[in-house]
Design brief:
Keywords: Plasmid. The structure is a single chain. By secondary structure, the protein is an alpha/beta fold. It is 40% helix and 10% strand. It has one domain: Collagenase (Catalytic Domain). The protein has a 5-stranded mixed beta sheet with strand order 1-2-3-5-4. Helix 2 packs across helix 6 and helix 5 runs antiparallel to helix 6.
């Protein structure tokens, strides 16, 4: 049987992705700004129902982490997230839009969470571009990745999710929402050198989320966490 060949000059057909809207409830947090009831995302329809549920869980986990920070600040004056970041983050403490010099990681964590509040409001109140959850199947370890952006008031929370890793039940939920938080840090305006996470705010902040703000284990490589980051 002869192999059927594509006619010369005829390009391969590209099928455009289609998306379905989902909403996620924004938890109550003691912040000074009015919060939206929900935030919205347009999810690639190639994700299975189970994978969409995992995506929802990641988003909810990141929002819960954000809420817990503000509850602790409200009740105690500071948060475990601030303490964790303060211990490990030394470089690139500020996002690209922040003009003042930050004294330490604790101050940087406070600025970051305020910036994330801005991102939540921008999404929920329709001030930012639509947020897409895009599909990229890969055998690499990354869970979520986000393209660098520089204005949390208008840039979307768009990220790309790897359906292969998000489906792995052996990966802790905190690792998944920590990877999402890292992708959103890129969207918020944070930078780190490619492949370098240790001591950089964007890397250490996400590792703190993945560890539940606990200290690092002596002798354990950061790659246990960073292999999942973009």
């Amino acid at each position: 049987m002869k192999e059927r060949r594509r006619c010369k000059g005829v390009s391969k057909v590209h099928v455009a992705a289609t998306y379905k809207k989902i909403t996620v409830v924004v938890p109550n947090a003691p912040v000074s700004d009015t919060l939206p009831a929900t935030i919205s995302f347009y999810v690639d329809t190639r994700f299975t129902t189970t994978q969409v549920s995992q995506i929802r869980n990641m988003i909810a986990g990141a929002l819960s982490f954000w809420r817990d920070h503000y509850i602790e600040v409200d009740e105690q004056g500071s948060s475990r997230y601030q303490a964790c970041v303060n211990k490990y983050a030394k470089f690139n403490l500020a996002p690209v839009w922040f003009e003042e010099k930050l004294a330490n990681g604790a101050a940087a964590a406070s600025v970051q969470m305020d910036g994330f509040t801005t991102q939540i409001r921008a999404n929920g109140f329709g001030q930012a571009a639509k947020a897409y959850i895009m599909y990229e199947k890969s055998n690499s370890d990354f869970i979520v990745k986000g393209v660098n952006a520089s204005n949390p008031e208008t840039n979307s929370l768009t990220v790309t999710v790897n359906p292969t890793t998000i489906s792995k039940t052996t990966i802790l939920g905190s690792f998944k929402f920590g990877a999402l938080q890292h992708a959103w840090l890129h969207r918020e305006g944070y930078r780190h050198p490619a492949g370098k996470y240790t001591s950089y705010f964007a890397g250490e902040a996400s590792m703190c989320a993945m560890r539940g703000n606990k200290n690092k284990i002596t002798g354990q490589s950061d790659s246990v966490y960073t292999k999942y980051l973009d």
